[in-house]
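User: Predict the full complex structure for these chains.
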Amino acid sequence: MAEPKEISMDHFSALVARAGLDLSAQELESLKPMYDHYARQTAKLHEIDLAAEDLAVAFSPQQPPATGSGG
Amino acid sequence: MTQTPTDLHYLTAHEASGLLRDKKLSPVELTRAFLDRIERLDGTLQSYITVLGESALSDAREAEADIQRGDYKGPLHGIPIALKDLYDTEGVATTAGSKVLADRVPTEDATTTARLKASGAILLGKLAMHEFALGGPDPTTGFPLARNPWNLDHIPGGSSSGSGAAVAAGLCMATLGSCTGGSIRGPASHCGIVGLKATYGRVSRYGVVPLSWTLDHCGPLTWNVEDSAMMLQSIAGRDPKDPTSSHAPVPDYSASLVDDIRGMRIGVPRHFFFRDDPRISDEVLSTVDTALEALRSLGAQVEEVSAPMLGYAGAAQSVIMLSEAFAYHEGNLRSRPQDFGEMCRARFRIGGLFSGGDYVQAQRVRNVLNRELDELLETYDVIASPTMSNPAGTFEEAGVMTSARTPSFTGPYNLTGMPAISVPCGFTESGLPIGLQLAGKPFDEPTIIRAAYTYQQHARLYENRPPEPQV
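Assistant: Here is the predicted structure of the two-chain assembly.
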C-alpha cells in the first residue's frame, strides 16, 4: 500500500486547534515532521483487515493465574 | 562483620539479607556505606534527584534495633533501596522528573512504597528519570541526566534511567522502575542488570504518576534475578486502591529460583526480533543467538515461532500511549506548556492529534496481538528475544525522536500485559551490556524467573561490575 500523503500545514493547524492547543507558527513547523512520522505509522493500523469480533478490549487484570509453569 | 565498608555496595540484596538476618551486618553500617558512595560518585553519575540521608539512617537505626530484639520482618529488612521519582513518598518531593511537578510533596505513600517500607527496606532516595516516564534524556527539563556506569558518555536507557544507573553502580541495592513501553527492561539491558515487568495488574500502581493507564506497569531493577524475585514478593498483590490490580494469589517467587529448564519450551519469533533491519544491531542479535544456544544446551526446547501481529505493535503502542498521556496532561499542556521539557511537550501534543478511530483501532490491534501470543503460549512456556534492538547510545545520539524511530522489542509485552524479564547476556566489543528478554504467560512470573535464573547461573555475568567512575 502506498504511503499516506502528508497533510498540508493548514490542515495540520486545524488539527492542532481542534485539540485545543495554541501553538506559534514556529512550533507548528517543528511539530509537523513528528506528526507526519506518527501519521505514517498509524495509517498501517487502519490497513489491517480486522473482523467484527475483534473488539477494542484491553487486557483484563481479572484473568486467573496461569496453571502451567513450564518444563 | 565479614565485609569491609568498601565492598558492602557490591553485595547483592539477597547476600546482604542473610547477613542482616544473622546479625553479621548492621543496617546502619550498610546504609552509611551507600550514602557515602552516593556522596562520592553521584555528582558524576547523576542518578539521584533526592537523597534522604537523615531519614535513611534513622530508619536503619530502627531496623537494627528491630533485628537485634528478634523482630525480623523478612528478606528486605535493612536493605537500602531507592525509588524512581514517580513513586509517591509521604513528605518527600515526587517530581516525575518534571518542572510541572517540581513542588509536589505527596501526603501519602504509593502502595508499593508503603509495602516496601512495611517489609523493612531503607529508602535512600528518589531516582532520576526521563520526564513523566517518556523515553529519552532531555536536557531542557532542568533535571539530572543519569549516566551509564559502563560508559559515562552513554545513556543508561530509560525512562527509569536513574534506577538502571544506581543499581549498576552500587548506589542502591534494588529499586523500582515503571514501564509503559520498556522502561524497566530497557535500562536493565543497557546497564547490565535484571529488570522484571510483572503482569499487568500484578503490582499496584496507586500513587505512581501515570503515563498511560492501560500500558503502565511497575517492577524491580536489581543486580540479579534473586533480588528481583525478592522485591516482587514485597510489592505484588491486590490493592483495593488500584481498580486494575488483580485478585490472583501471589505465589512464593523464591520457589522459582531453581537452576533447571530441562524440557521448557521456548519460542523465538525470529521474523520480528531477528529481522534484517539496519536499525537493529548485528552485535545484539549475535550475542542473543549465543544466549539462545545456551538455553538449548541447558535442556530447553528452543524453536522458531511466528506472530505476525508483532509488526503492528509499535504503531499501536504509540497511539495508545500518547493519546492516554495527552488525556492526563491536557490541562497543563494548555496552561503551562513552558514547564514541560521539549521532548515531552512535543510528543504529548502529538497525542492530542490522533482521532478516536486511531485509538480504537490501536486497541483492536492490541487485542488481536494478545490473542496471537496467548495461542503461542498454549504451546510454549516462554518467548525469548533480545531486550533492546541496540546497545545504549551516546547522549549525542539521543534526540527527541530517537526512541520513536528505533524498533521496540519491549513494547509488545506492555500491550499484552504479559510478564517479561531482562537478564544480562553479554557485552558489545566496546563493553556495553546486552540483555536477553524472556516473556511468559499472564501471572506466570515463576516460569520467567526460573528461566532467567537458570540462564544467569550458567552465564555468570553478574560477576562483572562496571568500572569505578572517575570523579
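Residues 238 and 409 of chain B are 29 Å apart (CA to CA).
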